[in-house]
């Protein structure tokens, strides 16, 4: 049987953008931005998307198209090593964990969408969120969201995903633009615009090490990196496509939607005196619900906004389900129907656990996801750099224009050495911060180094050593 492939280039781009654009942009990004100083966070986040996100996306694309397999098959086929094959199974677990909590948030969104018609959350937005977030009803809405996701995936790559995202993406952009254009004209909106777009450099300098891990985690999550989603999507891609051009287009579109979501959220929040709001998974819901409740035609605005979020969440959740489905179809010869059915049963249970317990939800949606995505992307990058080596360069160059061809070798050093080292650095400093462990200051040869400098020096040393290693390795000549 020949493997299905994308009917059109735009079909692939729309589906990949559909995976990237989701609750990460609309729910998690405004929450992270408000918790981490607004524009300062935006600046660091944009830097990470450009310097880590785009090269990382290309690493997943290269492995996916080279192997034409799911993540497990890809790593074991291309390396012929049982260790890499075992590592590949981590991505199936990651997908299961991602969809478990994502489907719960998808359920909340469905609930708010339905509630917007009647204005159910208008009277007491805070109490409303508390009453629906965890519990038996949350399980019900999670199952509804999961059911819709499963139905779309059941219809197959071409007919299901491609057709669904072709409709969703333009609708999302148009609706967000309309909401943004309306939001910035509100009285007091300019304060929100300033919070979001005018960076406070002193704040940035003082908090850089705290902002960095949050920005990096957010960049991976929003671009669907580190879970094998992008690898799986690229495995359906023809040889003649330019991975670099497609990857850049996807990152730009995704970033555009995220930044646009901020332009929708912050002016509205400030115009209503809600401000940047407190943290926690309910931040967006509580603050926007308060906003809609106070607005003229708030029900209409609510229906439109949550309608957009439902569409965006679905085009991401289908990409999460596609990973374990393609794994079972490719590796175990299961029919698509059996794979989707069986997995939906598993997610129904794992998602229900998240929907019932706030503590489990918080751990899974936060720390566990950051850990798995960062570890996963580091694995993909090292695989591209050290296992594929020169083959990765060839794969990236295939179908590409002159600029991408000349950047392919520097890209390999970036994904083989510098970015993994940076991600590990970021992750360790994030963990140290979360655990309340202070790094440094340290006195070395009479020079006193603060935490940032210590970490930078360690990073530079490891990067140079690995760089020399990669140059000597026979895989890259
Ligand atoms: N990028 C998606 C979002 O922003 O909502 C979330 C996501 C989808 C993460 C698929 C990881 C993934 F594999």
UniProtKB/TrEMBL annotation:
Q: Name one GO cellular component term.
A: membrane
- Segments spanning the bilayer are 6-27, 39-63, 83-102, 134-155, 167-186, 219-237, 249-272, 303-328, 340-365, 371-390, 411-432, 452-470
Spell out the InterPro entries in the cross-references: Na/ntran_symport, SNS_sf, YocR/YhdH-like
Q: Which domain of life is it from?
A: Archaea
Keyword terms:
Membrane, Transmembrane, Transmembrane helix, Transport
Localized where? Membrane
Matches recorded under NCBIfam families? Na_transp
Q: What is this protein called?
A: Sodium-dependent transporter
């Amino acid at each position: 049987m020949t493997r299905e492939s994308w009917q059109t280039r735009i079909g692939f781009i729309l589906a990949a953008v559909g995976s990237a654009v989701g609750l990460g942009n609309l729910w998690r990004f405004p929450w992270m931005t408000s918790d981490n100083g607004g524009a300062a966070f935006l600046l660091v986040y944009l830097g990470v998307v450009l310097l880590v996100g785009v090269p990382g996306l290309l690493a997943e694309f290269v492995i996916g198209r080279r192997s034409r397999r799911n993540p497990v098959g890809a790593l074991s086929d291309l390396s012929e090593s049982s260790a890499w094959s075992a590592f590949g199974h981590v991505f199936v677990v990651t997908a299961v964990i991602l969809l478990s909590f994502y489907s719960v948030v998808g359920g909340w969104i469905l609930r708010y969408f339905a509630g917007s018609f009647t204005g159910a959350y208008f009277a007491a937005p805070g109490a409303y969120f508390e009453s629906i977030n965890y519990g038996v009803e949350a399980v019900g809405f999670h199952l509804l969201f999961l059911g819709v996701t499963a139905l779309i995936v059941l219809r197959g790559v071409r007919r299901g995903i491609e057709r669904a995202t072709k409709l969703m993406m333009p609708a999302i952009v148009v609706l967000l633009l309309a909401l943004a254009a309306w939001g910035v004209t509100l009285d007091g909106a300019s304060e929100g615009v300033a919070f979001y777009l005018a960076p406070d450099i002193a704040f940035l300098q003082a908090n850089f090490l705290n902002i960095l891990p949050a920005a990096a985690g957010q960049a991976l999550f929003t671009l669907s990196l580190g879970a094998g989603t992008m690898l799986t999507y690229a495995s359906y891609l023809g040889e003649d496509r330019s991975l670099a051009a497609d990857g850049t287009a996807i990152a730009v579109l995704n970033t555009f939607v995220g930044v646009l979501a901020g332009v929708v959220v912050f002016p509205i929040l400030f115009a209503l005196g809600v401000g940047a709001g407190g943290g926690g998974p309910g931040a967006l819901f509580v603050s926007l619900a308060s906003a809609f409740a106070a607005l003229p035609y708030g029900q209409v605005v609510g229906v439109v906004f949550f309608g957009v979020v439902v569409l965006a969440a679905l085009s991401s959740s289908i990409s999460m389900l596609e990973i374990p489905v393609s794994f079972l179809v490719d590796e175990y010869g299961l029919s698509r129907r059996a794979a989707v059915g069986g997995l939906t049963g598993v997610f129904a249970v794992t998602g229900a656990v998240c929907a019932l317990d706030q503590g489990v939800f918080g751990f899974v949606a936060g720390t566990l996801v950051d850990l798995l995505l960062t570890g996963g992307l580091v694995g993909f990058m090292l695989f591209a750099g050290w296992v594929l080596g020169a083959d990765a360069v060839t794969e990236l160059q295939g179908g590409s224009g002159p600029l991408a061809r000349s950047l392919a070798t520097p890209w390999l050093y970036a994904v083989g050495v510098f970015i993994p080292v940076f991600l590990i650095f970021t992750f360790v400093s994030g963990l140290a911060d979360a655990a309340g462990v202070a790094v440094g200051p340290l006195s070395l040869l009479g020079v006193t180094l603060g935490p940032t400098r210590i970490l930078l020096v360690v990073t530079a040393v490891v990067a140079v050593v690995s760089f020399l290693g990669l140059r000597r390795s026979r895989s890259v000549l």
